From TrEMBL:
It holds the Pfam family UDPG_MGDP_dh. This is UDP-glucose 6-dehydrogenase. The active site is at C267 (nucleophile). InterPro entries: 6-PGluconate_DH-like_C_sf (IPR008927), NAD(P)-bd_dom_sf (IPR036291), UDP-Glc/GDP-Man (IPR017476), UDP-Glc/GDP-Man_DH_C (IPR014027), UDP-Glc/GDP-Man_DH_C_sf (IPR036220), UDP-Glc/GDP-Man_DH_dimer (IPR014026), UDP-Glc/GDP-Man_DH_N (IPR001732), UDPglc_DH_bac (IPR028357). The keyword Transcription does not apply. It catalyses: UDP-alpha-D-glucose + 2 NAD(+) + H2O = UDP-alpha-D-glucuronate + 2 NADH + 3 H(+). GO terms for biological process: polysaccharide biosynthetic process; UDP-glucuronate biosynthetic process. It comes from Paraconexibacter algicola.
Length: 437
């Protein structure tokens, strides 16, 4: 393998660790920096603080190329490109909180041989502001590249190694060239690589906007199909058939047309709101995104109505929630539908039990008053109804005859249309999905 450029990665969350491990796998030495000394210590011991399939193994495989430190100087001494992957959580106003990004910018020395490569999702215009800050601080030689990240939790390693596209926004200088070079093996043959990734090399503002627009569009697709599902429930159509028929139109495509009980996670809710705010702050009222957010909030609550339809008032009813994470194969609870659902159920007087194979520790920090069960069968024992909240594979293969024996009631609400209705009904249970006529 030709010698690969060493890089720094600032922030060891999902994006930072996956980026670091991915570039180490491609042959770079990677200097990972985080202000959390405990986390860095654990990483040095080979303990990975997040659940992401394949990540522990990938880091172990590339252990000697990955260096962990709390001192940003280690990255500056060893690398020209400093990938920034710190959190940009929403503030009360819905704008992204850029304090962690600004802390990194402030810590940079005057240098004309370094560049910040922004992986964190930031509002369009952030790059311009940071370049202005660099100028004001006498660091105008410091380069800036926007390189938004599109990985999905749960399949982050595959997404890194097999990107649909790599977006690089820069001023056409050495730093942008160097970032493209790093990604080269993952790009298509047309771009000199042997991977599937198309390259979009553009200006900084456009690169920033690609990320926000892509996430907002995907969220819009989900809210759209959720509303179609709700109409299907009124009209007797089956949304799965409708989505299949729609998705075969190549202009629409089959992905992100799965109705359910709302989208969550660290990106969609935050980025939709951030784009709405960004538009609003620049004087444009982005009407559509208000609806995308509102539909998503209402969708989380529709389960309550479904339960009441089957059980009457929920006071004293036992409800089992299967799955708590915002989606399968992650322990991430950020903006998970289970947060709203468990709170609403308890407010309605229900007794809630819950099980998640991986996210329980995270869930315990956020959800009160719920009985955390040993496993799925324990959660649903004596339950009047069960709600599938997150479609972990192990719930698809439950023995429904055993489930029927253990439950006190018969109601099964499949919040992700992931179960086999015939198998559930065959065990004498009542099945209701989302938008299934
Ligand atoms: C998303 C984007 O997909 C990714 O490109 C970006 O970098 C970060 O945000 P992620 O949040 O990891 O990734 O999860 P994703 O698989 O996109 O799912 C987000 C939410 O949408 C989940 O709650 C999921 O259950 C929901 N979803 C997804 C649906 O309800 N229906 C669908 O058809 C797809």
């Amino acid at each position: 393998m030709a010698e690969r450029e060493p890089i720094g990665v600032i922030g060891t969350g999902y994006v930072g660790l996956v980026t670091a491990a991915g570039f180490a796998e491609l042959g770079s030495d990677v200097y990972c920096i985080d202000i959390d000394a405990g986390k860095i210590e654990r990483l040095k011991q080979g303990e990975i603080p997040i659940y992401e399939p394949g990540l522990t193994e990938m880091i172990a495989r590339n252990r000697e190329r990955m260096h962990f430190s709390t001192d940003i100087q280690d990255a500056l001494d060893n690398a020209r490109l400093l990938f920034v992957a710190v959190g940009t959580p929403p503030t009360y106003s819905g704008d992204a909180d850029l304090s962690a990004v600004h802390a990194v910018v402030g810590a940079m020395p005057a240098s004309d041989r370094h560049a910040l490569v922004m992986k964190s999702t930031v509002p369009c215009g952030t790059g311009k502001n940071i370049k202005r800050l660099f100028e004001e601080q006498g660091k105008s030689g410091f380069r800036y590249v926007s390189c938004p990240e599109f990985l999905k939790e749960g399949s982050a390693i595959d997404d890194f190694l097999q990107p649909d596209r790599v977006v690089v926004g820069d001023d056409g200088d050495w730093a942008g060239d160097a970032v493209v070079e790093l990604y080269r093996p993952l790009l298509t043959a047309e771009h000199g690589g042997e991977g599937p990734g198309e390259l979009v090399r553009t200006d900084i503002a456009s690169a920033e906007m690609v990320k926000l627009a892509a996430n907002a569009f995907l969220a819009t697709k989900i809210s759209f199909i959720n509303e179609i599902a709700n109409v299907c429930e009124e009209t007797g159509a089956d949304v799965l058939e409708v989505a299949k028929g729609m998705g075969l139109d190549s202009r629409i495509g089959p992905k992100f047309l799965q109705p359910g009980i709302g989208f969550g996670g660290s990106c969609f809710p935050k980025d939709v709101t951030a784009l709405k705010q960004l538009a609003g702050n620049s004087g444009y009222h982005f009407q559509l995104l208000n609806s995308v957010i509102e539909v998503n909030e209402l969708q989380k609550r529709r389960v309550i109505g479904k339960l009441e339809k089957h059980l009457g008032p929920l006071v004293g009813k036992r409800i089992a929630l299967l799955g708590l994470a915002f989606k399968p194969n992650t322990d991430d609870m950020r903006e998970a539908s289970s947060l709203v659902l468990s709170a609403r159920l308890q407010a309605a007087g229900a007794l809630v039990s819950a099980f998640d194979p991986i996210a329980e520790d995270e869930a315990r920090k956020l959800i009160q008053g719920v009985r955390f069960a040993e496993d799925a069968l324990d959660a649903l024992t004596d339950a009047d109804a069960l709600v599938l909240v997150t479609e972990w594979d192990e719930f698809r293969t439950l023995d429904w005859t055993q489930v029927a024996r253990l439950m006190a009631g018969t109601t099964v609400i499949d919040g992700r249309n992931a179960l086999d209705p015939d198998a559930v009904r065959g065990a004498g249970l009542t099945y209701e999905g989302i938008g299934r006529g």
